[in-house]
Design goal:
Blueprint lengths: L5 H12 L17 E7 L6 H19 L6 E4 L7 H14 L2 E7 L2 E8 L3 E9 L10 E3 H7 L5 E7 L9 E2 L5 E2 L1 H6 L18 E6 L17 H13 L4 H12 L8 H4 L1 E5 L4 E11 L8
Parallel strand pairs: 1-2, 1-3, 3-7, 7-10
Antiparallel strand pairs: 4-5, 5-6, 8-9, 10-12, 11-12
Helix pairs in contact: 1-6, 2-6, 6-7
């Protein structure tokens, strides 16, 4: 694997912290391995500020991956290209053609209960495509992903949306899956604390229990917004050869002012839930093996 020098990665990191738009500072290899990295996201029901930050972060993530020269399928699909069938087609394509796939999604998630003759009433979660709304053809359901991800090569999945990490999930008969982690990673044996107690597998899933934090919300530490965590995470994992957990901890210290497992972001924060008529307990989660590094 190609490793960026400390001087170069440090300079990139400093520039990003200061808000500068970086241009390529390293020579990028034109020969890539069998790896893919895709960014998805919905503009539906977003404020202008949230949409702008989501768009810029997805573009930045793609840029960070491009500097490694290790990804022969690399695309930022944020916005109108995030359509349900486009997403599902790409799950199949990456499942069949790549040894490692990284997924980042920014948008909204929700769930409902479906009846299954074998398992009874089970919760099924979806991500909204760019059209949003209530139509089923605008909802990217967990089980539809699971049917297509059976090779288990979606190894790093980061879904910045509500409810994506409510549970590790399950894989039933005939590749029937429910909950997002088990569906995307096609693995229902992920550690439920991949940060402090990682398993020894190849998969790592990042998401949220209940409400996710908006990118446009301030973290409460200095003048940073939550968008900086997503951007910084991919700087550290692609250009600094850090594990998922190392990158998360560095970002937590930079943008939240403490180690990740000492923050409310990781332990518990509260949002008012109008459906419940009260506050909902929420948190960021790491499932699986947070000690993995990604091709870089």
């Amino acid at each position: 694997m190609k490793k960026t020098t400390v001087t170069t990665s440090g300079l990139l990191w400093l520039l990003l912290l200061l808000g500068f738009s970086t241009t390529p500072l390293i020579n990028v290899s034109t020969v890539a391995a069998d790896n893919a990295s895709l960014m998805w996201g919905s503009t539906w029901n977003m404020t202008d500020g949230e949409e702008a930050l989501s768009d810029s972060v997805c573009a930045a993530i793609r840029y960070h991956f491009s500097l490694t020269g290790e990804y022969d399928y690399l695309h930022d699909y944020y916005g109108e290209e995030t359509e349900k069938m486009q997403v599902l087609y790409n799950v199949t394509y990456c499942n069949d053609n790549y040894d490692f796939t990284s997924i980042f999604y920014k948008g909204h998630g929700c769930h409902e209960y479906h009846y299954n003759p074998t398992y009874g009433w089970v919760p099924h979660y979806w991500l909204y495509d760019d059209d949003g709304g209530s139509a089923s053809d605008d909802k990217i359901y967990d089980q539809h992903v699971g049917y297509r991800a059976t090779a288990g090569t979606h190894d790093l999945v980061f879904l910045w949306a509500c409810g994506t990490g409510d549970d590790v999930g399950h894989i039933g008969n005939y590749n029937y899956t429910w909950y997002m982690p088990a569906s995307w990673c096609f693995n229902d044996d992920l550690s439920d604390d991949g940060f402090n107690d990682p398993d020894e597998g190849d998969d790592c899933f990042l998401g949220f229990i209940n409400y996710s934090k908006p990118f446009d919300e301030y973290t409460g530490y200095q003048s940073y917004k939550y968008s900086a965590i997503a951007n910084g995470f991919y700087v550290r994992t692609t250009l600094c050869d850090e594990t998922v957990n190392e990158a998360l901890n560095v970002c937590a210290n930079y943008y939240l002012g403490d180690d990740l497992d000492s923050t409310d972001f990781y332990n518990e924060y509260w949002y008012y839930d109008p459906d419940m008529g009260g506050n909902s307990s929420c948190r960021f989660v790491v499932y699986g093996n947070g000690d993995i590094t990604i091709p870089n």
